[in-house]
Amino acid sequence: MTGKREPGGPEPSRPPELRELEARARERSAGAEPGDGALVVCDNLVRVYRTEDVEVQALQGLNLTVDEGECTALVGASGSGKSTLLSILSGLDLPTAGAARVAGHDLLAMGRRERLGYRRATVGFVWQQTGRNLLPYLTALENVALPMKYTRVPRSRRTARAAELLGVLGVAHCRDRRPAELSGGEQQRVAVAVATANTPRVLLADEPTGELDTASGEDVFAALRRANEELGATVLVVTHDPLVSEQVRRTVRIRDGRTSTETLRSADRTGAEEFAVLDRAGRLQLPGDYVARYGLRGRVRLTAEDDHVGVWPDG
Ligand code: ADP
Ligand code: MG
């Protein structure tokens, strides 16, 4: 199955940017070891929550690879496991099984000290609830400077960097105000500054625009883009907002605790193509609309063609 290409038809002309993304996607799914050289690698990740006698499988063998420098949107229905994944990647939660590696850190094997260092300097986090990201009794500048205190950055450098970050993220005017004196959008942009204070390799954001109106949401998303493009953070953002997922090159859809499909867009975001994610065992989840459109049920017939695999309804 190769997307929407006609079997044996001519290679459609696609922007070179999109081809490059496709080549990377192919490498991603073809490598013997998943994610060689990738910044974030989740391999068959499982997270089971057990309460009394109920068991919830929040992640059921999730595979995800993110290269350094990518800006990726994570989408999926409520309860599909997006927040669970982000908690694991942030070092707050531990998976039940599988493997997760971020910037050389093995998230399952990490000891207490490594975990602390990881959370302070390797990842940054922005929560949906604006109130959870900032300390209410500190000004914006003090909030941004605080994480650098934990990594022992000298005071003068802390202040200078905090001011610089507020400028880059478009909230320089907020520097001496406390969170209660800021709008929701301003609070979230300051939160992006806090999360990037220690130049993390990965910036995780869980529905950062969820509580905001469209215009403020766009400002916050612009701040995330800056964090990606100008501050060099690899960004992984959970969002329900189609405006956000349409603006990133790569959108990963999570369904039932697994990565189901990926959409890759060309640099100018005019072309988009959908990909399914193949796991190491060769398992593939077909998009629901394909299943419905071709009446695929139970057993499907496979045909090996020169350069693709055909999937046919049985009978
Ligand atoms: P999403 O962020 O995509 O909405 P979550 O990762 O929050 O999904 O949740 C995935 C599933 O795990 C849901 O069924 C949710 O009810 C369950 N879940 C999440 N956190 C816990 C928890 N601490 N205890 C028990 N079940 C949980
Ligand atoms: Mg969630």
What do you see in this structure?
The chain has 315 residues and is an alpha/beta fold. The protein has one domain: P-loop containing nucleotide triphosphate hydrolases (Rossmann fold, 3-Layer(aba) Sandwich), CATH 3.40.50.300. The protein is built from ten helices and 13 strands. The strands form three sheets. A seven-stranded mixed sheet has the order 6-7-8-3-9-10-11, sandwiched between helices. The protein has a four-stranded antiparallel sheet with strand order 2-1-4-5, covered by helices on one side. A hairpin with a 4-residue loop joins strand 12 and strand 13 (309-313). Magnesium ion binds at residues 82-83, 206.
Which terms would index this structure?
315 residues, alpha/beta, seven-stranded mixed β-sheet, 32% helix, globular, binds adenosine-5'-diphosphate, binds magnesium ion
